[in-house]
Prior knowledge:
Elements: H1 2-9, E1 14-20, E2 25-33, E3 45-52, E4 56-57, H2 60-68, E5 74-77, E6 93-98, E7 100-101, E8 108-117, E9 128-133, E10 137-141, E11 152-155, E12 171-174, E13 183-188, H3 195-220
Antiparallel strand pairs: 1-2, 2-8, 3-6, 3-10, 4-8, 5-6, 7-8, 9-13, 10-12, 11-12
Amino acid sequence: CAILDVQATCQDATVTQELLKEGFHRDLLVKVQLGVVGEDARGCAVAARTRLPPGIYVDPYELASLQQHNLTKAVLIPDVIDVEAPEYLATDLLVLLYMEPDPWCSRCFRAALPVHGRYHRPAEDSEEALVVLKSPEVLVCCCDNRLSAECWKPAEVAAPCSGKTISPCQWYSITQKPAYEELILQVPVGLRQHSSLVCVVTLLATVLCSSLILAAVCKYRRFS
């Protein structure tokens, strides 16, 4: 009976995520709705911890600009990202995305994060590569409050509760996690049979542009 009472009290958090826009440059919208256990998290910071696969990344310079304007807040691990690396040379990226309260729902939170698809290797017969994003983990940080030990467990997160604090504090994750649902990003890729044509066109375009530049330099005698 005690186990049943704990399960009834510690209701799962509902997590939904959606990709907005089209193409390589998208917005990842994450929504979190806490269950009855969310009553204990009032006044606390709520975040979504998600792991992005190598096929998708966050631009740290774009994120820094958004954070300066208070449009979003997130912590990237690692914080140094090669934005030019293709998918087969990139690694996973761990993101801690801080959520904002939903004014229309007392237990609801949401946040948006700009993400970008990486270039993939040319494919044999498909013009799209599939990048799978798993559902994030819900975390709560209460620097002055205690959460129920039956419903929340400590999480190893070296990040502050919010932008107002600098030193890390204790984060907690809900013990009853929702079923992980996958979100699929379709990234356009080239076909292997077009490789020769692409190389020839690229070489011709490079030679033509270089010739035009040299002709302009010789015409106006500006070599310095």
